[in-house]
Amino acid sequence: MIGHAAQDHRYAQRCLRALTALRRQLARAAGGIMTNPSGAWTAAAAALSCAIVLGACSVLESVPEPASQAPTIKSATAEIKAVAKDAKLIDPLQVAGPFEADPMTVAPWIICVRSSSPEQTRQVYALFYRGTKLVSSRQSAIVDRCELQTFKPL
């Protein structure tokens, strides 16, 4: 299976080549407007082509990736504890998940972590996973839906 970084790189290269070709067409068409009455139609066609390619690039970028295998709390325990330590969450910790993330987030799976200590405010952190690999983490946002999950002790 090809890595996501390699796929993203090839996708960006294809879009860049398409945009470069369209830029050349627009430049030729713009020169033709002055000398050829049908040059305006050529410029309009080139501009329309550019809009179609740009639209296709943005649509392809927003297509969600298929969900990979979900991580397990057991396999993610070390990473959960590391994120909690960096966030200065006090033991005992509670976790929720894994559950499927919103399609527009960085990875298809989320595990949420918080402290159950009464001395600490209820800070909740979201850990984003692609398969069993931690992709990123941050303080939970509404879109992560951590507050709606059922937490259990880690």
Any key phrases for this structure?
alpha+beta; 5-stranded antiparallel beta sheet; 5 strands; 45% helix; Lipoprotein
Gyration radius (Cα, Å) is: 24 Å
| Approximate shape | elongated
* Strand element count: 5
Mean pLDDT: 77
- How many helices in DSSP terms? 3
User: Can you give the helix content as a percent range?
Assistant: 40-55%
Taken as a percent bin, the fraction of beta residues is 15-25%
| SSE topology string | HHHEEEEE
Return the domain count. Answer: 2
Largest sheet: 5 strands, antiparallel
Report how far the terminal alpha carbons are from each other.
33 Å
| Structural class by secondary-structure content | alpha+beta
Unreliably modeled segments: 1-5
Strand order of the largest sheet: 4-3-2-1-5
Organism: Rhodopseudomonas telluris
Protein name: Lipoprotein
Question: SSE layout and pairings?
Answer:
Blueprint: H1 4-35, H2 39-61, H3 73-86, E1 93-100, E2 109-115, E3 124-130, E4 133-139, E5 152-153
Antiparallel strand pairs: 1-2, 1-5, 2-3, 3-4
Helix pairs in contact: 1-2
Any overview of this molecule?
It comes from Rhodopseudomonas telluris. This is Lipoprotein. By secondary structure, this protein is an alpha+beta fold. It has 2 domains: 4-61; 73-153. Helices cover 45% and strands 20% of the residues. The chain has helices at 4-35, 39-61, 73-86, and strands spanning 93-100, 109-115, 124-130, 133-139, 152-153. It has a 5-stranded antiparallel beta sheet with strand order 4-3-2-1-5, covered by helices on one side. Helix 1 packs antiparallel against helix 2. Mean pLDDT is 77; it is low at 1-5.
